[in-house]
Amino acid sequence: MTNTPLLELVCPAGTPSSLRTAVDAGAHAVYCGFNDETNARNFPGLNFSPDELRDGIAYAHKAGAKVLVAINTFATAGATETWRKAVDRAVTSGADAIIAADIAVLDHCATHHPKQRLHLSVQAAANTPEAIEFYAQTFGVKRVVLPRVLSVSEIAALNAEISVETEVFVFGGLCVMTEGRCALSSYATGKSPNLTGVCSPPDHVSYCEDPSGNLLTRLGGFTIDSFPQGEPAGYPTLCKGQFTARGKTSHLFEDPVSLNAADLLPDLARAGVTALKIEGRQRGKAYIGQVVRAFRSAVDALAAGADTLPDMAALKGLSEGGRQTAGSYRKTWR
Amino acid sequence: MSAAPIELALGPCLFNWPADRMTDFYARIADEAPVERVYVGEVVCGKRMPFTDPIWADVIERLTGAGKTVVFSSLAQPSSKRDRNALTLQAGYDLPIEINDMCMLPACTGRPFTAGPFLNCYNEVCLSFLAARGATDWCPPVELPLSSIRTIAALVPEVGIELFAFGRLPLALSSRCYHARSHGLSKDSCQFVCDKDPDGMDVTTVDGQRFLATNGIQTLSDSCQVAALAPDHLRSLGISRLRLSPHSTDMVRVASLFRQCLDREIAPDELEARLEETGLPAPICNAYLNGDAGWKKETLSL
């Protein structure tokens, strides 16, 4: 394995302190958002004020790391100014790139800040050369974050047909549905990634016991999963629950697993991917530090031509429930 | 405010119906359904296209002959090379087209098109952008509330707005096929088992509550959206057409009831009651229109 360019490691920062942790652990870039509905992790206690963003960017730049600002929800009708102002603030704060999905946001940035680097958010769900080239040519998008619908060989074929960089998710939470094209959460709760930047929001979660003593986890009035007495109950993320169809109860959409594509890094590098994204802006500092260090050592080894990657077994313990999948990167997942 | 009558449209059939059933269905729509516009074409899964491709030419001729405006609706999530080639062909059809993925935009820019409900168009800036490239009509995403639709309609009056008014709500797309998965198959060897469920496969919670329906790679609501709104009310919101999504219930009857409501022969609450008598696949919902959880049934407040 030789001549592998260094893959850029893009790491989550839900708070200023996790930004510093990610940078210290070797992130080439961190991504974060403002503490409002303009970003797709709009959870209480997360995200950055304008001042915190400025300070975070200064910290990252001093260490040679980049900061990518996610303004990646869809602007509310009649209130698009909030999103435009978020773009303006990110630009003046010195963001290295803005990650956007909505045409309103992309158009504002391309028109008013033509020199600002733009990345296309996964929420735009652009997975064909035609869609990607549309965003590249219309708004000058330089990189696209691919939705988790493609296999590694499809990513390679895609990269051969497009003029921009690609970034793929390699670790953390796994959307089973195509990102940006899922309204399951709002159907149950009224809140969704596209509308409000949240999925399966905690203020709609409740727990109760059924007559046999099982613990039911509920979201917006629907039971998402059932756990026998004494067993740990998982968070009721809608698409990871158990449901009944054709008389069978199962994890119909996906098991409660998370993504780990660490084994596929050499393949992703060969497929022409530029950057690897770690999910988890809602995660704590300890988690961020461990995951970032593990992946940084792997991409460094890969770039140095190592035949084998460092042992990443420690990552196994860092997933919810400890169970992991390579998701759509392996075609059999479908 | 224009007093033009509110139109009715039959949306694309989202389900895997056999070709002969589809042919019969559209023949009856052509002859009997009081709808001005009919969307045809496969929207959900490119693997189904070889089954229905051969019927469209005759279906379109039949519908056009009956005076309907026929719109070819395109795939919502093209992925394979075959899907993409099909879309390139469709972009060249001499027929109005509905775009359901941004990848179709470059090929269609400059010609009139309908922006479909699968596009992430949530505000007036996005709709103006699409209008500048040829969008003449727009069916908003199903989770968009009436308050947003009214705002957008007022700011982008040149685009006709078509509200998703009847049928299970298309909620999500995936690269994974849930029909195949529930039958122990993979998407690549799916045996087209989605044809077993002409209205989608019912999905309930572990404690037996109705919840969702799957249709291949698509997930729909269990509940059946019914936007029962009086014509003056629709006009005040800037809505000029209602979209009825095909189900196995009697769609001619469904369209006739909506038409009666738009003609003020029956009130909106009577429309709901009569629709329930036709044998809907599931209970009625409508609360997305209020900006609330989509599964609920509420009094429409706007």
Question: If you had to describe this structure to a student in words, what would you say it looks like?
Answer:
The complex is a heterodimer of chains A (334) and B (302). Chain A has helices spanning 16-25, 50-62, 81-93, 103-112, 129-139, 152-161, 184-189, 193-196, 265-270, 285-303; strands spanning 8-12, 29-32, 66-71, 97-100, 118-120, 143-145, 165-172, 177-182, 205-209, 215-219, 222-227, 243-245, 248-250, 258-260, 275-278, 324-325. In chain A, helix 6 (152-161) links the parallel strand 6 and strand 7. Chain A starts with 7 loop residues before the first strand and ends in a 9-residue tail after the last strand. Chain A contains 10 helices and 16 strands. Chain A is 31% helix and 21% strand. Chain A is an alpha/beta fold and 334 residues long. Chain A has 2 domains: 8-174 and 257-333, Alpha-Beta Barrel (TIM Barrel); 184-250, no CATH class. Chain B has one domain (7-171, 222-290): Aldolase class I (TIM Barrel). Chain B is built from 11 helices and 12 strands. Chain B has helices at residues 19-32, 49-52, 56-65, 81-91, 105-108, 124-132, 146-155, 178-182, 231-237, 251-262, 268-277; strands at residues 7-10, 37-40, 69-73, 97-99, 113-115, 135-138, 160-174, 201-205, 210-215, 218-226, 241-244, 284-285. Chain B has an 8-stranded parallel β-barrel. In chain B, helix 1 (19-32) runs parallel beside helix 3 (56-65) and helix 10 runs antiparallel to helix 11. The two termini of chain B are 18 Å apart. Chains A and B meet through helix 4, helix 5, strand 8, helix 7 and strand 11 of A and helix 5, helix 6, helix 7, strand 7 and helix 8 of B. Strand 8 (177-182) of chain A pairs antiparallel with strand 7 (160-174) of chain B.
Short description:
The complex is a heterodimer of chains A (334) and B (302). Chain A has 334 residues and is of the alpha/beta class.
